[in-house]
Description:
Helix content: 40-55%
Distance between the termini: 13 Å
Amino acid sequence: MTTKILAKYTLTQIQAASKIKALIFDVDGVLTGGEVIYTNTGDELKLFNVKDGQIIRFLKSSGIVVGAITGRKSDLVERRCKELKLDFFHQGAKDKWKLIEEEISGFNLLPDEVCYIGDDLIDLRSIINSGLGVSPSDGVEYIRDKANLITRSKGGEGVIREVADFILAAQGKLTNIIKICS
């Protein structure tokens, strides 16, 4: 299975993924499809893909730091991030790269050891400065142009899972995870 996954990527992408020690992502447009639904009573609704959530615990047990940074504030996002037991999450972010620098410093990590996934302007610096900058397939065109990798998945449709499987495969860890679950 690992060989099949890695066959989809270039050698440069595989080499970058093999160094990743932190996976950090945007929420709206990555963890969700980017839609915000408001009910008549003012409640906010978002859809999350359970496949993304499933792989996060395996990333963490493989020693990879996992975090989320979003420009919006939402009780739903806070609830989901706590449920996923992320190492950190920030809401209402204005400068995501600054927050990433602060977080990775606390984990003694370098920018080359970070994979960042984002889809819009607020994510651009983080995509450019990370070791592996990723955009969902439906990210804004000029974001995709700067990314090292564009997923086959659209935002909210398993982007985190696709990237996590790739990173774990590039590091030789996915095969063992599959065996454990068999």
